[in-house]
Design brief:
Blueprint lengths: L41 H11 L6
Length: 58
């Protein structure tokens, strides 16, 4: 029996990707990324309007 610990092989390094990063879609490219809510009814739209209206527009 050996008393030396077995060395683990080094973890594989991530591959370098040279694709154009502007070709990839980000969350900001979608409505959900800008905080848009899923489609709803008109009552939900009115509630959202009243919730998000600045106080000086009352």
């Amino acid at each position: 029996m050996s008393t030396t610990p077995e060395s683990e092989p080094p973890a594989p390094r991530p591959a370098l990707v040279f694709d154009d990063p502007l070709d990839q879609q980000t969350s900001d490219d979608t409505d959900r990324g800008w905080g848009e809510r899923p489609e709803g009814d008109s009552a939900a739209d009115l509630k959202r309007f009243l919730d998000e209206k600045p106080p000086h527009h009352l």
